[in-house]
Amino acid sequence: MRLLVLAVLLSAVVLFPSEAKRMNIYGETIVTEITPESGAMWTRVNDKEPMFPIELAKARMAGCTILSFDVIESGKADNIQTVISIPNTKISQHATSIVSQWQWQTAQTPTAKESHTVRLDFCLGLESLENTQQACAKQIQLPCE
């Protein structure tokens, strides 16, 4: 009897494949430097926008976070603190991970630590990357609060 039920179920899977369509999710991450506004000693080595975290895409989570940190003599971010994170701290955890991986460089010697504040916006869309980028351009104009 069990074999018969199993055979029927397997036949159903083969004969009637899933009707569910695969959904595309488009993610965009935008970094905005808040401080220092100009004349920074330290600049990011690679200022390319970071990839949207896959965990946030799976959870369909979008939002923003503001982080403050110090760039130290080794060219790494130190003392990373969350100023605000919307809608929750999960966004902040991913933003902190991104910032901690950045490499910084300076043209000045001797190098001293410098305080920075950045905003990371995580935007999601279902239609297209272009629509997601347009929505993100609007999101970064809104306060992160």
UniProtKB/TrEMBL annotation:
Start and end residues of each TonB C-terminal domain: 37-131
GO biological process: transmembrane transport
Highest taxon of the lineage: Bacteria
Pfam families with a match to the protein in the record: TonB_C
Matching SUPFAM superfamilies: TolA/TonB C-terminal domain
UniProt-recorded name of the protein: Energy transducer TonB
